[in-house]
Fold each of these.
Amino acid sequence: MPIGARPTLTQFLIEERRRHPNATGELNALVTDLSLACKAIAKRVAFGVLAADAGLPTAPVGVNVQGEEQKPLDVLSNEIFLRANEWGGHVAGMVSEELEAAYTLPPQYPRGKYLLLFDPLDGSSNIDVNVSVGSIFSILRARTPGEDARPEDFLQPGTDQVGAGYAIYGPTTMLVLTLGNGTHAFTLEPQLGEWVLSHPHLRIPEKTREFAINASNSRFWEPAVKRYVDECLAGQTGPRGADFNMRWIASLVAETHRILMRGGVFMYPRDTKDPARPGRLRLLYEAHPISFLIEQAGGRASTGRRRLMTVQPEALHQRIGFVFGSAEEVERIEGYHRDEPIDTYQSPLFGKRGLFATTAMA
Ligand SMILES: O=P(O)(O)OC[C@H]1O[C@](O)(COP(=O)(O)O)[C@@H](O)[C@@H]1O
Ligand SMILES: [Mg+2]
Ligand SMILES: [Mg+2]
């Protein structure tokens, strides 16, 4: 591969820093540490059950703060993220999906000027079936640089993010990154072990004919979501006048990657499944970083009702309804939420004689 023709991540970061004459290089050092953590996880994921530490790979090892089973790789990936990022003096604290409380750095390490929030292994229900998984991260500014971060310091709206990204451990390993100047994808060159800029300035097409939603939740959806999906399913003969394709991988990173590469819309909307949980995905370390990447690629990221990154967070592990992708479709879904007062939409597909009939038919 002619590396000279494509910058490495290091070259890219140096170029980025030149745009900010006062930058100290700490952000670049943090991204470098993060990218190392992702390489380490990629390597471990690739070895699968042959890895030396694999043990019993299908056995859950505990339950996290979300009440979800932790897989051994969830725990290991969390350790890799903590070890790679705690020592360098770039962060003042971290929040992880796998830790109930914010992580305080060991006393021997200096406190830096950034906060790091991450989902160390996203889509981990897919590990055993060898489907793409990933890691997601968000970078904020510390409120009191040089000191331990307080839990409330992490509760910043997504618009305050300095950087965000994910690594995808798929057929190729890729790192997708924004530092607020576009969304860029790097492919891991496996022989050199270098991230190479393969997809600079990604742009999501405004229009799409592809949507992603977990249809098994359809009986819990709000009317606006039912209406949107019904219209897509109705295809050429329906109000949209076009056939749509549907996808569901159950791996947020993989869904995001598809949408960044070829467009589409993703929905894990607020629903009525569990009134204590307004949505499935976590605001600070799933929805925020993905929203930043999507917006920087020209897409739209929403709660279903409004721009997601303007929501003021209230808790570290808060969940939220999340709709993102091609701007036109996301705006349409927001519009349906505005148009449809709750309970007035009569679904042709979800009613008695519908495609997704919830009442037993005679
Ligand atoms: O199992 P469901 O309800 O389809 O949910 C799938 C969603 O859950 C997640 O796997 C949650 O992430 P974690 O694996 O990090 O808990 C997302 O990646 C994905 O979009
Ligand atoms: Mg996740
Ligand atoms: Mg996870």
Note: The helical segments are 9-18, 26-47, 72-86, 223-234, 252-262, 283-296, 327-339.
Amino acid sequence: MSEQGKAPGPAEELLRIRGLQVVFDGFRALDGVDLTVGKGELRFLIGPNGAGKTTLIDVITGLTRPAAGSVKFGGVELVGRKEHKIVRLGIGRTFQTSVVFEELTVVENLDLAASFRRPLRSLLRQRRGVDEVVAQALETIGLTELADRPAGVLSHGQRQWLEIGMLLAQRPKLLLLDEPVAGMSRDERERTGRLLTEIAKDHTVIVVEHDMEFLRRYASQVTVLHEGKVLVEGDVAQVSADPRVQEVYLGRSGKEAAA
Ligand SMILES: Nc1ncnc2c1ncn2[C@@H]1O[C@H](COP(=O)(O)OP(=O)(O)OP(=O)(O)O)[C@@H](O)[C@H]1O
């Protein structure tokens, strides 16, 4: 993994969102969101239920079309592009529901995910051995020893790592992860934190997460959404000390913000 591009100073901009508005039946799910994410950032996106986090990810990935605003990725406008074109530009996401094929092995799942980048002729030709990108993804997610086991036998945590590996196999520049540690044990959360830190060395990662303890340990920059707007942005210390953030979280669950 390369450390290049991690020199101090402002990171090169990768994602630039301006004036984003999403309206569902007259309800503004996003109401003028501006967000800039630099290359190599591990950005956390938090906010109470209904704040607009998933909607924001849906707009970036082309699933939801905004009523107004712009989403530029490496200078390229994404609004109006189809989902699969956005994937090909280098944006991968996980969903809250699993996309793993249980009857295929771990390595077959990764291979399938990688295959969409391969030219058709190499798909038709029988290939031997494991692709470099697949082997690397397998190692990064720490599932090399389980490579030939069916994905159906994986634990919840291992399955989440496989999904992240499937994204890596598609060689994205930007990964969008929706609640990657939901339902995980403490040990699995720690492994996931280390995995995300490793991945962020040569990718940009945006994580939607509710787990405040996880956020405090692994986030660098945090953006807090509330009622479709950016409420606060900064590093973990700034954001958790901000009275507006405490108020929003105290309104929902006093323990989370005060802990
Ligand atoms: N397809 C839809 N049609 C109508 N309303 C929607 C739709 N999708 C989302 N909403 C509404 O938009 C608001 C933002 O939802 P969103 O799922 O983006 O919030 P969130 O921050 O991801 O919340 P959570 O933490 O609960 O996942 C909510 O009030 C939700 O009910």
Note: Residues 24, 29, 47, 49-55 surround adenosine-5'-triphosphate (CB under 6 Å).
